[in-house]
Amino acid sequence: xxxxxxxxxxxxxxxxxxxxxxxxxxxxxxxxxxxxxxxxxxxxxxxxxxxxxxxxxxxxxxxxxxxxxxxxxxxxxxxxxxxxxxxxxxxxxxxxxxxxxxxxxxxxxxxxxxxxxxxxxxxxxxxxxxxxxxxxxxxxxxxxxxxxxxxxxxxxxxxxxxxxxxxxxxxxxxxxxxxxxxxxxxxxxxxxxxxxxxxxxxxxxxxxxxxxxxxxxxxxxxxxxxxxxxxxxxxxxxxxxxxxxxxxxxxxxxxxxxxxxxxxxxxxxxxxxxxxxxxxxxxxxxxxxxxxxxxxxxxxxxxxxxxxxxxxxxxxxxxxxxxxxxxxxxxxxxxxxxxxxxxxxxxxxxxxxxxxxxxxxxxxxxxxxxxxxxxxxxxxxxxxxxxxxxxxxxxxxxxxxxxxxxxxxxxxxxxxxxxxxxxxxxxxxxxxxxxxxxxxxxxxxxxxxxxxxxxxxxxxxxxxxxxxxxxxxxxxxxxxxxxxxxxxxxxxxxxxxxxxxxxxxxxxxxxxxxxxxxxxxxxxxxxxxxxxxxxxxxxxxxxxxxxxxxxxxxxxxxxxxxxxxxxxxxxxxxxxxxxxxxxxxxxxxxxxxxxxxxxxxxxxxxxxxxxxxxxxxxxxxxxxxxxxxx
Length: 630
Description:
This protein is α+β, with helices and mostly antiparallel strands. The chain is built from 13 helices and 32 strands. Strand 13 and strand 14 form a beta hairpin. Helix 3 packs antiparallel against helix 4. The termini are far apart.
């Protein structure tokens, strides 16, 4: 204690000593300095109250600031605490909600509420129930034959349905997607997906699948019937001449755009289909490529021969080449003509396949025949001329037979006569009319020989010489009939058209397994014809004359059935065809009985309209042997 007091005393003495030293320094300064010091002291003394006041204010403000900081800190702590409590409550509620949803849906084996497929509510259904409900709705839609999809362009219409393309929805995948909503495996995300779906709903679109082959076939068929379709350049060989036919500009179908429209319409199962306008593109025919044509027709001559063990038939090959140079041929194309003729050099080998005879084609594989009106000389001439061009044609395995290529362009110069044909929905005069009967007969014999059909189109109206679904129309430059020899050996076509019978047979070599072929056409519905009346001032009032008889149209399906030892081993849909109804046209008189006759400079004697033989009559008897090789 005493030691501490001595230390305090020593500190006091040190402070007093320092103060005395400062006073001595002030005394030692000059009088001027002393006056300044004195003045400074006086000034400080004068300003002392103001200085003290400022210090007090500063201390007050400082204290206020400290208090404000303290208050802000307290508020911040309270706010943080509140936010923490809110977050904790949210987490707690979320966990509680998740647990609640988990408990509610733990044993749920049904699709959650708010889910639909193809706009059909499947909430609270099992996967099996949902699948049945969707399939029932789709089947009901697809089986409605009155709800056709109409593909339209100008006055041309084609009716199709979902069944035309074997339309199918992937219902299984859509139901699986619906069932898996809220079942992904993460309890939190699953529960919120369930909640979101309940609140905002979810519609699943089942994917639609169409048979692309049938879709492409339908579009090709529609395209072939377009009156203003582009006609590409083509060529054929006639005797020792290459005939190049100049094409014509026209329209082609925009396939992808049309497909998208068809998918869009068939994908909606709740509203009636809308008429689909067929999108087209204007196109010029491709330029004539002489080098390409020469490469396609050029051949070296080869003799025909037959090999044994195993049997192989090698047909002869005629040597073919241009008889003039490419440069000379190009000069011929400089003229603006519809057809160009280029001379060919044909070299026939010493031994042809026809010389082989029965050695190469010993077996009758199939035959089929139809009848025609032999008294109609023009039509008979056309059928017999086309038949003579097809007769003797040999088709090697894997090769295609093209009717238009073999028969050639139907012209007066080629020997064809003016007959009748269906053009633009009417029966009109046309050079070569009637040769579709030969192509239809050939179509049937190709089917009975179990050959692959590559290209075939049905007529606009029903024919009288074959049943619905068994015809094959042709029109040079746009519609062809093509089949492929899918057998192991070459085949030979033998035709004989005379005395009103058009007969076609196919010869070749029997294979180890020969099928019996049955062609089964079926009419699925009929299309009634309409009647149009035309006023005729040359007829007395009240009289009527039928100018064109009406014929009902129909929709048909045609199947090919293969049998082996009497048992069906395969059934295949060949085609689904639509035949338009042909309107009935009636002329009715408007001439008053007592009125003066009306002079018409263009009036002609009334003529009975030319009828198309067998085209609009009942089905005529058909002679055929269905696959005699079987």
